[in-house]
Fold:
Amino acid sequence: MVVHFRDRGRSAHPFRGLSMNNIIYIVGLIVVVLAILSFLGLR
Structure:
């Protein structure tokens, strides 16, 4: 049963990596937008 669970986690790993990259991409976009808004707000 433990081996089956490990195989299941191994197969789900690529999806986990994709979601992590997606989260990093979204956070990066939010940071860039906030930086631009703060820069325009300072001017």
Remarks:
- The two ends are 62 Å apart (CA to CA).
- Helices lie at 2-42.
